[in-house]
Design goal:
Blueprint (H helix, E strand, L loop, with lengths): L6 H9 L7 H4 L1 H16 L1 E2 L9 H7 L10 E2 L2 E3 L2 E3 L3 E2 L5 H18 L7 E4 L5 H12 L5 E5 L15 H5 L1 E5 L9 H11 L3 E4 L10 H11 L2 E5 L4 H5 L12 E5 L10 E6 L3 H8 L9 H13 L3 H23 L3 E2 L8 E5 L12 H10 L2 E2 L1 E3 L12 E5 L1 H5 L4 H17 L3 H15 L7 H8 L2
Parallel strand pairs: 1-15, 7-8, 7-9, 9-10, 10-11
Antiparallel strand pairs: 2-5, 3-4, 6-12, 11-12, 13-14, 14-17, 16-17
Length: 459
């Protein structure tokens, strides 16, 4: 029966009309949560080194018809070490998903392996950095085989072999540490490599503020016949713009998240020497994941294009300038900066060794009271912490505030507020006063994308 002459059918169509399915009408509770989170981000100084603001273009690319499509497999097939332009998907209907993924792969190679694209392979399907790391380990190690990674207590990531991670449960993880100056000790790493003969070595960190000597790591890996994996999740944008030395050609594999300094969606990528591509692809799918999230991959392609621009290069340079300015002012104010300075986007502070007026029970206390003053940092272990669950330090980073347009003079102001917060020992009146100042301060640095967001959820 024609819906026009069937009242029940007409009511059904009206119920699911585009107007009725607008988010504010469908789910006002979710809309309220989105608005609250937007307000929180807009009125707080975000100094967590792993956080950023996506650009409006990246956010817009998240919501598109690609979210409806299953795309298990790859837009190519391997034969004799070569990628063939043949459909390698399980499901049909992949004309445009194949084009999208090939475009993202091309942009990843153009960004991370310029001039050497034919020698490298990119897998853009990992759902985040941790799955990317586990997929690489699974590609090259059998259960129980040995790899080296930086200890979590000394700046490494959980997936670099911490005992609570699946990476340590499946494989034999040997952990290296920093030296007494809180720097990577390459001689010690070499000694461990010679002693344990790992099949794979992970370099890179989640809380290390100095440059990493990828060339030295490469020499160690070649000496023991190990595959070198550089986890550059935190510094990916810095290596592509020359603010930090590049892992290639010293590393065999690069892994990275895409939502930190790259300002992309929450996903991951793996770039490797081309001959390692088939093993990595099999480890990602079908070894670890099913179909990729194609709408996220769409947003990743946009972020990779943005990261290839001169504007992005200017951005990453300012990120480093801001980090150094923040470190210098914090040090002048009496905070103990681990390693004495920073050479990337983050600053590590040891509260226990700072000026007595700034000391608190542990880093978590400072993080908690700073949040009451609308300054968001994260507690962090420092080398030698006896109780890493009650860490002595905090970690601060500049990618997010730099995206908003802040520069060195704002870093000095932020450092001074952190100092006031620490000295307050949590006194509510002081924290409330700083919070009011921060609220007023943040009005000068609006989050990008406000107009696009309000078009979806309303003012």
């Amino acid at each position: 029966m024609n819906p026009a002459t069937n009242p029940k059918a007409e009511r059904h169509l009206q119920k699911y009309s585009p107007e009725a399915l607008s988010l504010p009408k469908l789910d006002p509770e979710i809309v309220e949560l989105i608005k609250n989170e937007w307000h929180r981000q807009s009125s707080n100084i975000r100094l967590i080194a792993s956080e950023n603001y996506q650009t409006p273009a990246v956010m817009a690319a998240y919501t598109n018809p690609f979210v409806n499509k299953y795309s298990e497999g790859y837009p190519y097939k391997w034969k004799d070490g070569e990628r063939l332009n043949l459909n390698g998907r399980y499901y049909n209907g992949q004309e445009f998903t194949n084009h999208l993924e090939n475009l993202a792969i091309k942009r990843a190679l153009d960004l991370f392996a310029p001039g050497m694209q034919d020698k490298y392979h990119a897998n853009v399907q990992p759902l985040s950095g941790a799955p990317a790391n586990f997929a690489v380990l699974n590609a090259f190690l059998e259960k129980g085989e040995t790899f080296l990674g930086l200890s979590l207590d000394y700046g490494g990531h959980l997936t670099h072999g911490h005992k609570v991670s699946v990476t340590a449960k499946f494989f034999n993880a040997v952990q290296y540490k920093l030296n007494q100056d809180n720097l990577l000790d390459y001689d010690h790493i070499r000694e461990l490599a010679l002693q344990h003969r790992p099949k794979l070595i992970i370099c890179g960190a989640t809380a290390y503020s100095r440059m990493i000597d990828f060339k030295r790591f490469g020499e160690i890996a070649r000496e023991v016949g190990a595959i070198l994996v550089a986890d550059i999740s935190h510094i990916s944008g810095l290596v592509t713009t020359g603010e930090h030395p590049h892992p290639f050609p010293h590393a065999d594999v690069i892994t990275s998240t895409t939502h930190k300094i790259l300002r992309g969606p929450r996903s991951g990528l793996i770039i490797s020497r081309k001959e390692l591509g088939p093993a990595i692809d099999r480890a990602v799918f079908p070894g670890l994941q099913g179909g990729p999230h194609m709408n996220t991959l769409c947003a990743l392609a946009v972020a990779l294009k943005e990261a290839s621009t001169d504007e992005y290069k200017t951005y990453t340079h300012q990120v480093c300038l801001n980090a150094r300015a923040l470190a210098e002012r914090l040090q002048q104010n009496g905070f103990h900066i681990i390693g004495g300075t920073t050479e990337n986007h983050m600053v590590l502070i040891d509260i226990s060794k700072s000026d007595p007026a700034l000391r608190l029970e542990h880093g978590g206390v400072l993080a908690d009271i700073a949040e009451k003053a609308r300054i968001v940092v994260n507690k962090n272990s420092v080398p030698g912490d006896a109780k890493p669950w009650l860490p002595s330090g905090i970690r601060v980073g500049t990618p997010a505030v730099t995206t908003l347009g802040m520069k060195e003079q704002e870093m000095a102001q932020i450092a001074d507020w952190i100092t006031v917060v620490a000295k307050s020992k949590g006194e509510e009146a002081v924290l409330s006063h700083v919070a009011d100042q921060v609220m007023d301060f943040m009005k000068k640095f609006p989050i990008p994308g406000y107009e696009e967001m309000t078009a979806v959820i309303g003012d």
